[in-house]
Amino acid sequence: MKKVLVTGAGGFVGRHSLNTLVERGFEVHAVASKTLPTLSSDCTWHLGNLLDHTSIKELVCQVKPTHLLHFAWCYTVPGQYWKSQDNFLWVQASLELLRQFREQGGERVVMGGTCAEYDWKYGYCSEFVTPRNPDTPYGICKKALQEIVNSYSETTSLSSAWGRIFFPYGAYEYPNRLVSSVILSLLKGEPARCSHGNQIRDFLYVQDVADAFVALLESEVTGAVNIGSGQAIAIKDVVYKIADLIGKPDLVQLGAVPSAAKEPPLLVADVRRLSNEVGWQPKLSLDMGLRQAIIGWETQIIQDCKLSN
Question: Which residues make Cβ contacts (< 8 Å) with residue 256, sequence separation at least 6?
Fold first, then answer.
């Protein structure tokens, strides 16, 4: 029996991985830090503080997973997690989780990384070619953890991979992130205030992101793998796609807010490893994914209105 422990299972990407893992025949043990979500009745849920080494040991000894899918990290509020000191704590916690997992017989681990590990001045990011030179504590900590995971895996003969996430979007992400903030503003009939929108990015619907991680977990591919679409698109084009789908292009206000400092003009994933070695392709086009994101947020707004009445 394949038994997987999923950390960050209540988070943006983690929650979308659960049903796919069940469908792929895993016995799924999902970890939440505060309250037990009701995201999947086919999972066994565990409360656990992964920043407490004793809690980690108790959890792993109880579950004895064969596989580990590690998404948990510091609370990702946009604009705050880049420099949070909690990033350093999560390196320690992740290493302890890795050690306990291996000592309890764990066979295969996949951890969530980030495109922030790369040197952004190169724009097009390849796992084997593009230098990694992060300039934030978030990127530095992720880069350091990936290097240690690689070394530990080689030393202990543990199979491991590292998924570098680019720009996921979809319902239930933090509402101030780009795609969700535009959707929510337009659904409420409010202006969607954006920067100039000329930045070129790589967007992938969150369910596809989660499915890519499950495919990576089931594969024998090791090392870093970019998790993105490989498709370059300007942010302003994404914004207008959303506006057209909702029917409110007149509410888009490009240039209404300044772009972030040090924001690169281009950031796109080379996805040849994901496609050729893992053998995975996205199920949803950008237009299809945006439709799903809009439906998800419409549903959430309706639910919130019912709760408030």
Answer: 191, 193, 194, 195
- Give domain 3-168+205-227's CATH superfamily: NAD(P)-binding Rossmann-like Domain (3.40.50.720)
Per-domain residue ranges of the chain: 3-168+205-227, 170-201+231-266+286-308
Residue with tokens 């281009």, as numbered in its chain: 266
Which has the closest alpha carbon to 146: 160, 128, 166? 160
In which band, very low, low, confident or very high, does the pLDDT at 306 lie, cut at 50, 70 and 90? low
Crossing angle (nearest 10°) for helices 286-308 and 235-246: 60
More confident residue, 203 or 261: 203
Compute the distance between CA of residue 151 and CA of residue 110 in angstroms, rounded to an integer. 14
* Rounded-to-integer distance, Cα 90 and Cα 76, Å: 12
pTM exceeding the 0.70 threshold for the entire prediction: yes
Residue 303 has pLDDT above 60, yes or no: yes
Q: Is CATH 3.40.50.10170 the right assignment for the domain spanning 170-201+231-266+286-308? A: no
Query: Crossing angle, helix 206-218 and helix 14-23, to 10 degrees?
Result: 50
